[in-house]
Description:
The structure is a single chain. The chain contains 2 helices and 4 strands; from the N terminus they run E-E-H-E-E-H. The chain has 55 residues and is an alpha+beta fold. It is globular and about 30 Å long. The mean pLDDT is 94.
Amino acid sequence: MMHGGIEFVEKDVKENPEHLKNLQDQGIFATPTIFIQDTYIQGLQLDRIKKELGL
Length: 55
């Protein structure tokens, strides 16, 4: 998918329980969780997301 010129992959934990298990295996129990390379951000923290993307 693409939004605002940024390509991303959406993984819906409600549609695919394996996505939820993958998060839980990493110790992550909150959604949304956004991964930007080696960094993950829990919740919709727009300022932090923009910073990580260099925007």
